[in-house]
Amino acid sequence: MAITDALCGSFLDLWWHFDPAAATLAGIAGNDGRLGGFDGESLRQHVAALRSIAGAVEDLDVVEITDEIDRTALLDHLRVLLFRFEHEQPYRRNPALWVEHLCQALDGLLGRAPDSAVAEAVLSRLGEIPRFLADARGSLRSPPPLLVDTALAQLDGLTELIEAARGVYPPGGDALATVAEAEAAVEQFRLALGSEIALNPDPGAVAIGEEEVDRRLHYEHASVHNGAEVWRGALRLAAEVEADVTALAAAIDPSRSWREVYQRAQPSRLHLEDLMERYRTALTEARRFAELHGLADPTGAALAARPAPAYALVLEPEVSYLPAGAGPATLLVGGREPRGLPWLAARLGVPGIHLHRARCDALPGLVRRHIAAPSTPAGWALYAGQVMRDSGYASQPELRLAERVLFLHDAHLAVVDVGLHTRQLSPGDAIDHLLEHLATDRGSAEADLRRVAVRPLSACAAILGLQELQRLREDVRARDGTAFDARGFHEELFAYGGLPVPLIRWGMGLDG
Predict the structure, then answer these.
(1) Are 65 and 5 in contact (CB under 8 A)?
(2) In the predicted model, is pLDDT for residue 326 greater than 90?
(3) N or C terminus of the chain: which is more exposed, having fewer CB within 10 Å?
(4) Which of 34, 172, 167, 174 is nearest to 105 (CA)?
């Protein structure tokens, strides 16, 4: 066992206890009947425990570079969590985190084959909802309106999950009373969000702030860049990609704008079952292409697809990836038309994030299996899509245009992400920016805004990870010369799991 893994195991045990919904989704047994404790006293206890583990990690006596890399990754992960809990205080300002926890806690159980253990766990979690939402009402202080609106939208999905639970929990008078009390607690919380909890009127209240952006870039992503540099880089990238989009569209039809050319080539809205079948077909085609071109081995579990629950659509209205846990890895498919479908399949399936996650899950070390910077898997998804493009995948002009438009969305969402959280853009400015620069509608732009508000730097992280991976590949190519092998490079990358790319660079001897 790697020297850091014992402490990583202690951290994971603590984390699964803190967030039992995440444990259920990950297939970790032992907490299925519980909900988290996010009230002030519970958070203080967990912060104290996190500090203790961080101190032990810092005091480790390591000699090998692999151990030093693992220790750095785990320690930085703990530092980010500690600063979030002590300074950002998300459970005091973001009601959507409370609602999403409940949704994931129930959805993670309802996605399993029903049996007596699942039924008991569902009923136990339903029974904890009144306590949990009472804690939420007592903990929230001046939440920003955008985060309240997000939570209110997710509550509709929570109500659907509670209704779905009626088909799982054991019958009887006590069960009926438990679900009635849960439903009443949800409505009471909805009322509190709508009229009782005072909101923060500051348009910039949703931002985590420039100092915390810089801190996350440094500790979460091991980046040497600050928020201002990332902001300027995202603006430059968006301008470059828009020029590519304009040129591709002009080659198809020079008489029309790129938005007109792109929208004319998009399929009409499909029924959900037809849409899921399209995704399944596209996933298979992407995987076959990747295997044929040596980008993936013909092994590994298939990727399932199912309709997205309503709460997930609030942040991800088109499609999202649910890693394997108690069940198989799954695409959660919304009811939107599949714009850029071949590219979404390449990014989310094989050789994209599904392949990356499967390789992480197979690693022997706990740190590299479980401690991931969001920039690495998200960056890999974009990187895999671009490698597929460069290999000749989906080469028709309209599909090439769709790939660039999809990446243009990524670039501008990164602009909005950094701008929102460094207070250079208000929520209204962010919506206007997306509507001005993308072929999108207001509903989709609002979902994008909600996503980066609830998950700060998530869009920025994807671009950052892509650029770091591209730079690393070119540096390895320059080092190895004619001996460079792309497949060997990817295999070496996978050995580091989800660690930040700058730490991977260090491990490869390219830390300059």
Answers:
(1) no
(2) no
(3) C
(4) 34
